[in-house]
Every structure is written in C-alpha cells, then in structure tokens.
Fold:
Amino acid sequence: MQTSTTLGEFLRVRRGRLKPEDLGIASYGARRVPGLRREELAQLAGVSVTYYTRLEQGQSHQASESVIEALARALELSDDERGYLHNIARPAPPHPRTAAPATVRHGTRQLIGSLNVPAVLVGVRTEVLAWNPLGHWLLAGHLDRDAPDRAGQRPNLTRMLFLDPHHRDLYPRWENSASCAVASLRLAVSRHRDDTELAALVGDLAVNSEEFATLWAAHPVAEHASGLRHLRHPEIGELTVELETLVLADEPDQRLLIYSAADGSLSQTTLT
Structure:
C-alpha cells in the first residue's frame, strides 16, 4: 500500500463527506463535487492551501503529528479513523516482509477447546488459525474441520465473505457485514503496511470482487470487534449472536472471536 496514494485518497474521500452548511461555511456558486473545497478544509485545519494540496496529491511525505491531528479534527474523524490517519501519514517501512505462518500455542488451543460456545482464532490477515467444533459448525461447516492446521490452506474469513457463496449466505444482512469487514481490514493494513501477504489479500479481493473494490475505494475505517451478529445458518435458520473479540496478551496479532447468545433465547438453546 503506497502511503502517499492512500493518504491522498483518504483525505479526499473524507473531505467529500462533509457538508459546508453543517460547519457554518457559506457556499458561493455551484460546487462541482460534494463536500468541502480544499481551501475550506485547509482553513479549518489551520494549514496553507498549498501544503494541504501537496498532502492530497502525495507530494509531501513528512506531515507532522500536529498537522495530522489538526486535519483529523477538521474532518471530524472518529477515534478509529484518527488512528488510521496517523498510521498512513507516517513514512512507509523501507522493506516489505513476508512473515512466517502464524502458530498457535498449546494453551490457546486448550482454551478454545474448553469453551462451550463457538470460538474462532484468527490472525492479522483474518486467516483462521484454530476453531472449536462449535466455531467450525457456526461459520464454515462446509469446509474441512482440520483446514486451519494446514498453513497453506487456512480459511480466510474476509475472503470467504466475498468469494465463498456458502459463507456469504450465512449473512442475511450481507452488505452491512461486508462494509464492517472492509473497515476492519483497512485498520489492519494501516498497522501492518510492510506485510506482503496482507497486501496480496487486498489485491486478490479487489481483482475478484467488484463489491470489495467498491467498498475499499470508499475508505471505511472502524474496528467492529464486538456487537450483535445476525446469521442465517444452513441447518437451523436465523440466529442472533453477540460477538466479543479478545486480543491475546502474548500474541497481539491473534484475536479470539467468541460468539454467545442471550440467556433464555432460542439462539442460546440452538448453540448449546
């Protein structure tokens, strides 16, 4: 991911979603595109129009933290978006890296196996590293249960969401799930800009899914690590579950996804 290109695209997209009238800016004449003009955003952020234009056009690579923070305030970014902006504004790592396949500690496997609710362990690229029987049944019962144990064949939740019809059918509100997945992936890419496999995942999805490419170009950014998930399971029908995501203390790039249902609900009875 090229820092200058990504930074410029993100600034343009976020500038375009702001309405001048909401910010007390008088609008004179017809606007060719929606949102703020460059000079209007530059004024709100307290930077020169020339400097801001250079940032959008990828001609400046050394924006200070104070300037980026001023832009974040002017663009009214969320906390996740602010963190993303700071990440992509920093100089890119000099060399890409191909990380070794992630491994799962014995204690982590033991924990996952002991849970009586669906649990799935994923890596930074949303690849499935391990799952318990309920996790496998809930999200990907059509796949080989042992697939996560083979590094080269690990299922990938984001790839499945866009390219696996069976997995896609699991989400009756697919458009919302897809937007959340892309927003989370944007954050991951900003934090691991030297990860060649993560970049390859984005490239593969952009080429093979027009829907992914469209969402990616809109630059959604948010964590989406918890909350209600509405599923349509092929065996039992509609389910409403609560997702909680735990980051492993000794493996910060591994996240444990745990799905539970409200006490006494039909979904809870089905899951247990």
Notes: The chain is about 45% helix and 10% strand. Strands lie at 119-122, 128-131, 227-233, 237-247, 255-260. The chain has two domains: 3-89, 106-271. The two ends are 43 Å apart (CA to CA).
